[in-house]
Specification:
Strand content of chain B: 15-25%
Radius of gyration of chain B: 21 Å
Number of domains of chain A: 1
CATH topology of chain A: Pyruvate-ferredoxin Oxidoreductase, domain 3
Largest sheet of chain A: 6 strands, mixed
Largest sheet of chain B: 8 strands, mixed
Number of strands of chain A: 6
Order of helices and strands of chain A: EHEEEHEEHHHH
Distance between the termini of chain B: 46 Å
Shape of chain A: globular
Order of helices and strands of chain B: EHEHEHEHHEEHEHEHEHHEEHEEHEHEH
Number of strands of chain B: 15
Strand content of chain A: 15-25%
CATH superfamily of the largest domain in chain B: Thiamin diphosphate (ThDP)-binding fold, Pyr/PP domains
Number of helices of chain A: 6
Shape of chain B: globular
CATH architecture of chain A: 3-Layer(aba) Sandwich
Structural class of chain B: alpha/beta
CATH topology of the largest domain in chain B: Rossmann fold
Largest interface: A-B, 21 and 25 residues
Radius of gyration of chain A: 15 Å
Number of domains of chain B: 2
CATH architecture of the largest domain in chain B: 3-Layer(aba) Sandwich
Distance between the termini of chain A: 24 Å
Oligomer: heterodimer
Helix content of chain B: 25-40%
Helix content of chain A: 40-55%
Chain lengths: ~180, ~375
């Protein structure tokens, strides 16, 4: 498989790091792949742009950070403005249509999906926004299967939120399947 | 999915390995980027009948593990630079009193409180010479989670074998990164148990009288035998002495027991060294960036190799000398101002061929940083 480098970015509290861990764990524990997950710490973790990185591959990963992602997710305008320039040419840039106004000059396939609004409307719990986003990433890239991620959700999401998380995952995947 | 397969942080890999090695007592004061070690042991250690203590500072922490070790427990503490500075007096005491313990230092930027959340490898020389007085020390490191596991077990084994503190130098990148870890089945990696005296109650026990093989059987403090433990130079009963021949003999013993066994303590990994014109030497998180460069250049036919050090102290002079014998250039990749580079220059036949590729700004050294140095020494410009 082609090595996949993903950066999830947003604001502290949106769950981008949790989403990154769930995805990478699913690849390693349930699909037999290699994955690394890192995050930037420091002042960025306190309300500013927060960033989590995942590499998934079928061969050992040495340098574990992502400098040029194939897939970039931006869940705030600040994160978009800060990170949209780092995307690998031809990569996928996913953002939320309510929270981010995309600009056209990025050399990437841009998808602006109503993830936040759909979560509020269909599920009513903003806490699963990150899982909806993960569903959209999987819908667009098929890096790992929804089943594998669902297994990871079971270990990471406490009982009462598990059901709404699986609905959010399917919701996100559905949103992605509607784009061309 | 295999039984021991996990997806965890480097700090958790260290915890898993410590429990595997038989850790029974942990005392510490949480500090970034080592805090997850305390966090996970606080949950895990009591479940296996061990004791977890959070103390008021790092001085208390190292003193607590020294005391617990004397009573027969396998012990560990974990910290980062500022806490490691506070531990130096206790470290020297453990060296002098020959008390097995493992001290994890997940390095961050320094000096002082420095850069709490950023990677650095600036404590290499502090690990060697932080405690005062002539002494030998063992310091180990690792770059992958699987290696963190194996080296942590090795740290416990080495501490027990040589009755000495062992320092595990991790860094923020390895400590916080998540990747695959396969915890081996019990028994797959040998663990060294505490060597205890077979002398019964009432028999004359000499706590500081080495056997012929240099090892000193211990007696659980507070158990069958009464003896003295001190940071002063001492005789075979543990009582203070200034007798020059005993002082000389003890200091020689403390240094020689490690220096004479450097080969069995020494761990390293090598990649593509057989025909390498340029040898990269690295360790810890930096070795991941170095290996990335080596593998990418090998695909293009360039003769690069990597020597990854896992034992930093005692420094593997002979390994470095022999592995670099045919190198046109030796590039040491580390996140400090050349602390291992200095040792490498002392090891090789041509110190003028040793170049430093480093980063000291709190940013994890990238393959591009290393490639730029390679281009310079190859005369290609950046």
């Amino acid at each position: 498989m082609e090595r996949c480098r993903i950066v999830f970015s947003g604001a502290g509290g949106q769950g981008v790091i949790t989403a990154a861990i769930i995805l990478a764990e699913a690849a390693v524990l349930h699909e037999g792949l290699e994955a690394t997950q890192t995050q930037s710490y420091g002042p960025e973790a306190r309300g500013g742009a927060t960033r989590a990185e995942v590499i998934i591959a079928d061969a050992p990963i040495r340098y574990p950070k992502v400098t040029q992602p194939n897939v970039l997710v931006c869940l705030t305008q600040e994160a978009y403005n800060k990170y949209s320039g780092i995307i690998r040419p031809g990569g996928i840039l996913l953002s939320d249509s309510r929270l981010v106004k995309p600009q056209s000059k990025v050399d990437a396939r841009q998808a602006s999906l109503p993830m936040y609004d759909s979560v509020i409307k269909e599920i009513g719990k903003p806490i699963v926004f990150n899982i909806c986003m993960l569903g959209s990433v999987l819908g667009m890239t098929r890096i790992v299967s929804l089943e594998s991620v669902t297994k990871s959700l079971q270990t990471h999401i406490p009982g009462e939120f598990f059901e709404s998380s699986t609905r959010a995952l399917a919701l996100g995947a559905g949103l992605a399947s509607n784009i061309d | 999915m295999s039984a021991g397969l996990k997806f965890v942080q480097g700090n958790e890999a260290c915890v898993e390995a410590a429990l595997y090695a038989g850790l029974q007592f942990y005392a510490g004061y949480p500090i970034t980027p080592s805090s997850e070690i305390a966090e996970h042991l606080a949950v895990r250690l009591p479940r296996v009948g061990g004791t977890f203590l959070q103390l008021e500072d790092e001085i208390a922490s190292i003193c607590a593990i020294i005391g617990a070790s004397l009573t027969g427990c396998k012990v560990m503490t974990a910290t980062s630079g500022p806490g490691f500075s506070l531990m130096q007096e206790g470290l020297g005491y453990a060296i002098m009193a020959e008390i097995p313990c493992v001290i994890v230092n997940v390095m961050r930027g320094g000096p002082s409180t420095g850069l709490p959340t950023c990677p650095s490898q600036g404590d290499i020389c502090q690990a060697r010479w932080g405690a005062h007085g002539d002494h030998a020390i063992i310091a180990l490191t690792a770059s992958t989670l699987q290696d963190v596991f194996e080296i942590t077990v090795h740290a416990f084994n080495t501490a027990e074998t040589y009755r000495t503190p062992v320092i595990l130098l991790l860094d923020e990148v390895v400590g916080h990164m998540r990747e695959k870890l396969v915890v081996p089945e019990a028994g797959a990696i040998a663990t060294v148990d505490r060597l205890k005296t077979s002398l019964k109650l009432g028999m004359d026990y000499h706590p500081y009288l080495p056997r012929e093989d240099g090892r000193l059987p211990m007696s659980d403090f507070g158990g069958q035998h009464r003896y003295n433990v001190t940071g002063l130079f001492h005789d075979m009963w543990g009582f203070p002495t200034q007798e020059p021949s005993m002082v000389h003999g003890l200091l020689r013993h403390l240094v020689d027991k490690i220096a004479n066994n450097a080969d069995s303590i020494c761990r390293y990994k090598e990649y593509y060294l057989e025909d390498a014109h340029i040898v990269l030497i690295s360790y810890g998180g930096s070795a991941r960036s170095a290996l990335h460069v080596v593998e990418n250049r090998r695909v293009r036919g360039e003769r690069l190799g990597l020597l990854e050090l896992q034992t930093i102290w005692p420094f593997p002079y002979s390994v470095v000398e022999s592995k670099c014998a045919n190198a046109r250039y030796i590039v040491v990749v580390e996140m400090n101002m050349g602390q291992v580079t200095r040792a490498v220059k002392r090891a090789v036949a041509h110190p003028d061929r040793v170049v430093l590729a480093n980063r000291i700004d709190g940013v994890f050294i990238t393959p591009t940083d290393i490639r730029n140095i390679l281009r310079l020494i190859q005369g290609k410009g950046v």
